Amino acid sequence: MALNYRDLGGDSTQRRIQKLKELHERASQGGGLEAIDKQHERRKLTARERLDLLLDIDSFQEVGKFVSSKSNPIPGDGVVTGFGTVNGQRIGVYSQDFTVMGGSLGRSHADKICKIQDACVAAGIPLIGINDSGGARIQEGVVSLGGYADIFYRNVLASGVIPQISAIMGPCAGGAVYSPALTDFVFMVRETSFMFLTGPDVIKEVLNEDVTFEELGGAITHNQKSGVAHMSAKNELECIQQIKRLLSFLPGNNLEDPPFLDIGDPVNRREEKLASMVPDDPNKPYDMKEVINLVVDRDSFFEIQPLYAPNMITAFARLGGHVIGIIANQPRELAGCLDINGSVKGARFIRFCDAFNIPIVTFQDVPGFLPGTNQEWLGIIKHGAKLLYAYCEATVPLLNVTTRKSYGGAYCVMSSKQVGGDWNLAWPTGEIAVMGAKGAVKIIKRKELAAAKNQKDKAELTKKLEDEYKADFLHPYLAAEVGYMDDIIDPRDTRPKLISGLEMLKNKSLQLPRRKHGNVPL
Questions:
Q1: Active-site residue among 174, 199, 420, 439?
Q2: Which of 209, 409, 496, 521 sees the fewest Cβ atoms within 10 Å?
Q3: How many domains does the chain have?
Q4: Residue 305's domain spans which residues?
Q5: 459 included as an active-site residue
Q6: 275 catalytic per annotation
Q7: Of these residues, 309, 410, 440, 479, which one is catalytic?
Q8: Is 409 a residue of the active site?
Q9: pLDDT digits (tens, 9 = 90+) for 430-451
Q10: pTM above 0.85, yes or no
Q11: Catalytic: 174?
């Protein structure tokens, strides 16, 4: 409902204060009680209810509550903006109000968001955007499109300066999707949030394809298939809890260190399970997440993009109270191979950690890049180079634990000494070589195998040669001899060894050559 500001003057001070209170109450109702009821019927909270769940009690300082526009006289213009704290950490926030013209973005709406973006960069605090909007306000024409462009520009300027988090809690379509895509992390709610450039109706008309909103741009689609989103939640409350958990690992800006939190987990804790984690059969998988959870501070593991490219694990955790970013191969998925999606997922996570002073710990068990025409034709060379580029560019402490396989180009890419690894450790089960025994023997012993008299002799010779190759090459000691591994450790000592490395590297300072910017292989 629009507010009537007429006849607000001329009263006593007490009467004016009372009128101000009434105006605040009416403005806080957004599009009115009926619109709020409809929002709840869609299993969605209102803009202000979401902020109440996100922010610490009584910490919200609203900005621009009485802003309106010619196309929308309702105060606030469809977006709630301001500042507050989350578990004591200062943040800036905007929350689009779907009860007001469907949360559509006009000039004043955009200006409010831009103002908060600028203020967050100036203050050095994270920005959280809660998106629930029907898109550009048609009534304002190109002015609304200009508003989106202003927001995008600020997203880019803030990138790597402050953490930017987007929560999709309703529709997000057309040009509106690019602001979340430019931010660091995107959270979605299953069955009530959607992202797409063109909706199902347009796709049906142009391509004659039938697709539902959920199939086209729902939370599972973008968490599992496209990789646009990082987390999915069953409802808005869970989504907000996920955002709070993420914030607990992040600094306010690129000049701060991430928050330290000692939970009392002993630094020298040894885990007996780690000694038997890697199977004797080199082709048998195991769960790298179990390894990680045994090493990091208890209950601190927080996985990012768990549904997308599961052969590559990306996560935040703590070691001795210090925040770390984790990159790990998952032997249970594609044998831990690097593929296009996993490489891009890892590269973007590494670049975020590097931008915000978060040390990176790599757990490595990788037989190589995923073979196949599909991967080659879709550009595994270019996309795999993104992961390599990210490691080479990183200036934060880089720690590496090779648990088993480390073959070929994948050895080079995954935080090797040659691309900047600072503290490289291997378990005795590590296999650091150009390739595995089977492939190596076929190449380097092909003449001997060709000379075998029959299949039985060939099989026996093959096994003998493979055993010799394993004894000569499939271990970590050759790499240690030439200084490519800093230490070969008992798996049970992984936690204390990594914490020791973190302490050693906490004041690491590395300056890259002066340049405008590098040219990452996009």
A1: 174
A2: 209
A3: 3
A4: 272-435+474-505
A5: no
A6: no
A7: 410
A8: yes
A9: 999 888 888 888 888 777 777 7
A10: yes
A11: yes
